[in-house]
Write a structure and sequence with these properties.
alpha/beta, nine-stranded mixed beta sheet, elongated
């Protein structure tokens, strides 16, 4: 059976001793190394490697240069690794059987002394998120780890592990073991809705710049990078009564739908616009609330004649409606436009930036409009030159979103889902067309207990992440094919 070297971040003497005792229970472990910032750290039964930071390129190269066993285990937390019975033997066997470049496994998570299952998801071509959850135990095939590290040509302070993982993925499969092989103490116990904006927190900007650079180099290596060349958009397609339509899909939002509708009708523009509400068989009084506005001729109230529509399917109904304007502009039923000028700014941006899609800036608030951290979400990481490549790494593009209707009708139908449908549209549009950006706050994204993503369980979080990774995979495959066609 394959032998293993283990690399563990050093926290303190007690943590180090416990890890040595646990790892030495397996005869497969040949050497244990602790990664420490202080050269004076000494641990019985192990050696110390001095590092600058845990995730740097320099650390990855030191690990690869030091490893001399068949497999290299990298534990990425400053905790005590609690391995399951014969877990390392299982890691080693499946690494050999699958000929994986890296294996990772499901695990148990300990929160406040309570142990729960923490399954992870399968890795695929589109799993480019730098926050992809492998768990905390990564077991590399050492020869391929060394080959990947030998190719490192940029020194990252934060993105070293991410860069290494991408390089390893080009040399073989990253294999998910669907078995619970260890336990881990949770260090981030926030709800799902509180974590999803970490990557746009201004405090993390330096990290994100490095992650974008590493992802871009990976895309170039696999043929998925798109150079900043875009098709022009011709805005004379079709005959439209309205210049713009705001589209609101809604189901059972009696508490918020009136506010959303008022937000639209308060818009001041130099063009004609309307509001299309797709009322997806609401049962809580939402339908009646919408009807309170029926005397306004700008309201188009659609009730589907089918019961299998997600948010994306509702969008398709709205866009295909004969009353839909030249530009289709998003507003969620929970949310509000920030002021009366939002719609004008969005439409102006289409013409000024010659784009097929426009994405604005929003601010997170509670239901009463009080700002919540991290506050303004401006997605300034988007650049005209590289935004569509970086879009494959991040989990969303921002809001509000708006589309040139003829393309949405005839080129890219909205996926009939209630998660990720807008992200899929953004990737699809950006493959050939520029996406316009507005960095003024246009939109109040209201977070409250009724939001669909406020506090999801691990099964739903995994399902959402798996789907978005699949969207990325499909888009990446299409981009690789496009580059081959244009070569």
């Amino acid at each position: 059976m394959k032998k293993i070297n283990c690399f563990i971040p050093y926290a303190d003497a007690a943590q180090a001793k416990a890890n040595v005792e646990g790892l030495r229970k397996s005869a497969l472990v040949t050497k244990i190394y602790f990664l420490a910032a202080d050269a004076s750290v000494k641990v019985d039964g192990a050696e110390t490697i001095v590092i600058d930071s845990l995730n740097s390129s320099a650390t990855m190269k030191k690990i690869a240069a030091t490893a001399d066993a068949d497999l290299t285990l990298f534990y990425i937390k400053n905790n005590v690794l609690r391995l399951g019975y014969l877990a390392l033997e299982r890691f080693a066997k499946l690494a050999a059987d699958s000929d994986a470049a890296m294996v990772y496994a499901d695990y148990y998570e300990i929160v406040d002394g309570k142990t729960t299952k923490a399954p992870v998801i399968d890795y695929q071509m589109g799993s480019l998120r730098d926050d992809f959850n492998f768990g905390s135990v990564l077991v590399f095939d050492t020869p391929r780890l060394k080959e990947a590290a030998a190719g490192i040509d940029k020194e990252y302070e934060f993105a070293g592990l991410y860069d290494l993982r991408l390089r390893v993925s080009r040399l073989g499969d990253l294999v998910h073991i669907n078995e619970f092989l260890y336990s881990d103490v949770a260090t981030d116990t926030r709800k799902s809705g509180e974590k999803q904006f970490d990557y746009v927190n201004p405090r993390n900007r330096g990290v994100q710049i490095e992650m974008e650079a590493a992802c871009t180099e990976h895309l170039k290596a696999i043929g998925g990078y798109l150079a900043p060349k875009f098709k022009d958009v011709e805005f004379d397609k079709g005959d439209f009564e309205y210049e713009a339509s705001v589209i609101i899909p809604v189901r059972n939002r009696i508490r918020t739908i009136r506010d959303a509708i008022k937000s639209v009708f308060e818009q001041k523009t130099n063009f004609k616009f309307n509001l299309i509400v797709i009322d997806n068989l609401s049962t809580d009084g939402t339908t009646e609330a919408i009807d309170e506005f029926k005397d306004d001729p700008r309201l188009v109230h659609i009730i589907p004649d089918r019961d299998d529509l997600g948010i994306g399917g509702c969008w398709n109904l709205g866009v295909q409606n004969e009353k839909c304007g030249k530009f289709a502009v998003q507003l969620d039923s929970d949310d509000l436009y920030s002021d009366e000028n939002t719609l004008q700014k969005v439409v102006d941006a289409f013409y000024a930036q010659n784009c097929a899609m426009v994405v604005g800036t929003y601010v997170l608030t509670d239901i009463n409009g009080e700002i919540l951290p991290p506050g303004v979400i401006d997605h300034k990481e988007w650049t005209p030159e590289n935004g569509r490549n970086n879009a494959l790494r991040i989990n969303g593009l921002g809001a509000p979103r708006a589309f040139y209707t003829p393309m949405l009708r005839n080129v890219v139908n909205v996926p009939n889902t209630s998660y990720g449908e807008d992200y899929a549209l953004g990737l699809g549009f950006s493959r050939e067309y520029q996406i316009g950006r507005i960095y003024d706050v246009l939109y109040n994204c209201r977070r409250w207990e009724g939001n669909s993503d406020a506090a999801l369980d691990i099964v739903k979080v995994n399902a959402n992440n798996l789907y978005k990774d699949r969207i990325r995979t499909w888009e990446l495959q299409a981009r690789i094919a496009l580059n081959k066609k244009n070569a």
